[in-house]
């Protein structure tokens, strides 16, 4: 497998033969003008949300300058940044197990010995996927499942040294999250039962993946953590509580969960010991989309036990939580831990789908100590958004002291930075056109994450499945 590299060295656009996407999207307006007046609002102090590394507290003020068109037609970056293609779907896995699978999605980076970095990458493969995750003995849950994870090991210089199957036989592996003990929890975004789509086992579970030695974790579903349309997780590093999002597009919408493990922070394999699954109830708020004011805070958040986590007869979000009900939200996606709180994303809400109100992205903060839920960031709505997306999806904290947000919608797709001051800037634009001249489509970004030392951003293009490593002047004064 070859690795390719491109450097943005000039602000002068390069000639490109690809068709230019001419529609101006809401996110492009955000990138050019900042947040003011274009449908993004932030709540008060963002100290926790935008707490970066100590070495970069003064950075991330205005972004790094305009994006320079990539003559290779893959990835536009600001001047001074460069990318390397680490892996691309269809190329042979270095392990010899088969081709690199399709549909690159959630991802995390883990530090290793001698400066190595271990990447674990999801493949959101449905039964129609072009390239399945190859079945490997001892690492396959359901032979009929086409999803799973692959693992890459990079040396101290950033070169790929190994690439192999980490888990196979799962389905629609969307996002997930890292654990404090250095493993990856991969999430199935499906509720298909055995007998559906040829599956031999039920799906809709979380699986633990060891990035260094996947055979330590195997392919064991963590059934106590629930069977539903999982999206992402975040672990409280102090208590070991695991927070989970449910990406339900249509009513009844998904729930926000917490899992109270029997063996909190017990290390690899400890989650198999089970625990208790609960769903969040915000008194008086049956639908989070109804909240539109940034800074709105709700005290006394409650947690209700899930009657049947395995959803034996009824999907969890449809189960009876008693006369007080439960709190739902459309498109719950990204989830991460920052400071002393957990943050989670509602990618968008549409009243036409049954939501209480419209928005094009919310970021919520839950403080476990005070049981407070606060709406921190609201996007939109605007008139120029191409439904059904252009909304925040995978997100991560950046060394620059802000957020990196993957865009998931129609038209051109970007990785955006959001600074502590609430300024939005474009960091990358996908130039890979997977549609036609009449109907161009650009694969969404996913799995944005940083190396442990903060020197490299890794990000996936969903289709055609591509994993990029982006380096540049992260520690320099951003351009204006």
Automatic annotation (TrEMBL):
Stretches of the chain forming a coiled coil according to its record: none
Disordered: annotated segments: 1-25
InterPro entries in the record: 6-blade_b-propeller_TolB-like, PhoX, TAT_signal
Pfam families, per database record: PhoX
Protein's UniProt name: Alkaline phosphatase PhoX
């Amino acid at each position: 497998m070859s690795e390719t590299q491109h450097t943005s060295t000039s602000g002068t656009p390069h000639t490109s033969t690809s068709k230019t996407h001419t529609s101006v999207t809401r996110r492009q307006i955000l990138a050019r003008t900042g947040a003011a007046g274009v449908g993004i609002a932030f709540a008060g102090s963002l100290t926790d949300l935008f707490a970066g590394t100590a070495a970069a507290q003064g950075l991330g003020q205005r972004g790094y300058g305009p994006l320079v068109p990539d003559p290779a037609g893959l990835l536009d970056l600001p001047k001074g940044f460069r990318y390397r293609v680490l892996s691309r779907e269809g190329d042979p896995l270095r392990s010899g197990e088969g081709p690199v699978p399709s549909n690159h999605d959630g991802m995390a980076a883990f530090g290793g010995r001698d400066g190595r970095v271990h990447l674990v990458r999801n493949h959101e493969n449905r039964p129609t996927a072009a390239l399945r995750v190859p079945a490997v003995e001892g690492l396959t849950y359901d032979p009929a499942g086409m999803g799973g994870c692959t693992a890459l090991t990079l040396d101290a210089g950033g070169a790929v040294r190994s690439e192999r199957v980490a888990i196979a036989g799962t389905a629609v592996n969307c996002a997930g999250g890292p654990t404090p003990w250095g493993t990856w929890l991969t999430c199935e975004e499906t509720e298909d039962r055995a007998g559906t789509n040829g599956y031999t086992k039920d799906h809709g579970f979380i699986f633990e993946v060891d990035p260094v030695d996947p055979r330590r974790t195997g392919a064991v579903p963590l059934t106590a953590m629930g069977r539903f349309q999982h999206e992402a997780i975040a672990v409280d590093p102090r208590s070991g509580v695991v927070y989970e999002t449910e990406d339900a597009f249509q009513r009844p919408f998904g729930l926000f969960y917490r899992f109270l493990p029997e063996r909190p922070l017990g290390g690899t394999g400890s989650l198999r010991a089970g625990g208790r699954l609960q769903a969040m109830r915000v008194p008086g708020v049956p639908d989070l989309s109804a909240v539109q004011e940034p800074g709105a805070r709700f005290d006394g958040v409650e947690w209700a036990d899930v009657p049947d986590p395995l959803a034996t007869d009824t999907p969890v979000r449809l189960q009876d939580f008693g006369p007080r009900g439960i709190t739902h939200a459309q498109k719950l996606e990204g989830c991460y831990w920052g400071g002393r709180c957990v943050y989670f994303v509602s990618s968008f809400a549409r009243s036409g789908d049954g939501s209480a109100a419209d928005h094009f992205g919310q970021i919520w903060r839950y403080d476990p100590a005070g049981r407070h839920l606060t709406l921190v960031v609201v996007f939109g709505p605007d008139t120029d958004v191409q439904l059904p997306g252009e909304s925040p999806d995978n997100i991560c904290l950046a060394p620059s002291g802000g957020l990196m947000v993957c865009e998931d919608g129609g038209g051109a797709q970007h990785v955006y930075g959001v600074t502590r001051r609430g300024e939005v800037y474009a960091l990358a634009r996908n130039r890979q056109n997977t549609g036609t001249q009449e109907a161009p489509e650009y694969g969404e970004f996913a799995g944005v994450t940083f190396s442990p030392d903060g020197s490299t951003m890794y990000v996936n293009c969903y289709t055609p499945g591509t994993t990029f490593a982006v380096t540049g002047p992260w520690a320099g004064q951003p351009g204006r």
